[in-house]
Amino acid sequence: RGKDDKYKVQMPKLRVAKEYKDKRKSIDDVERNIFKFKKSGEEKSKKMDKEEKFFRETFMYDKEIRVLATATATRSVRSQRRADLPLTAGEQLDVIDAVQGHAVICRNAQGRYGYVLVEHLNFR
């Protein structure tokens, strides 16, 4: 025996019922489906495109959408109307455009756009 074999602990092999083994393999095959990720990515991009189209129609925004800054929501705020963006405390937002007054147009992680008051945001 070599030096490494001297310290190895030998574990007994457990017998597994054939039905259980087959069931476990089929579950592993389902979880390892490589096309699953592509599908969710496509659905997400379609949803983002739909939100962007709605944003452009609602806000009459024809400029290029560029992120000016990143901000964090300081507290949770419910939206009063469709044009307002609902916030949760600590949520990361992309500032798209600064409008006149105390509001800015932001985009959240789900791709929704809306007005957010500056006092609810923390800029780093």
Automatic annotation (TrEMBL):
<keyword id="KW-0597">Phosphoprotein</keyword>
<dbReference type="GO" id="GO:0072659">
    <property type="term" value="P:protein localization to plasma membrane"/>
</dbReference>
<protein>
    <submittedName>
        <fullName>FYB2 protein</fullName>
    </submittedName>
</protein>
<dbReference type="GO" id="GO:0007229">
    <property type="term" value="P:integrin-mediated signaling pathway"/>
</dbReference>
<dbReference type="InterPro" id="IPR029294">
    <property type="entry name" value="hSH3"/>
</dbReference>
<dbReference type="GO" id="GO:0005886">
    <property type="term" value="C:plasma membrane"/>
</dbReference>
<feature type="domain" description="Helically-extended SH3">
    <location>
        <begin position="55"/>
        <end position="121"/>
    </location>
</feature>
<dbReference type="InterPro" id="IPR036028">
    <property type="entry name" value="SH3-like_dom_sf"/>
</dbReference>
<dbReference type="Pfam" id="PF14603">
    <property type="entry name" value="hSH3"/>
</dbReference>
<dbReference type="GO" id="GO:0050852">
    <property type="term" value="P:T cell receptor signaling pathway"/>
</dbReference>
<dbReference type="InterPro" id="IPR043443">
    <property type="entry name" value="FYB1/2-like"/>
</dbReference>
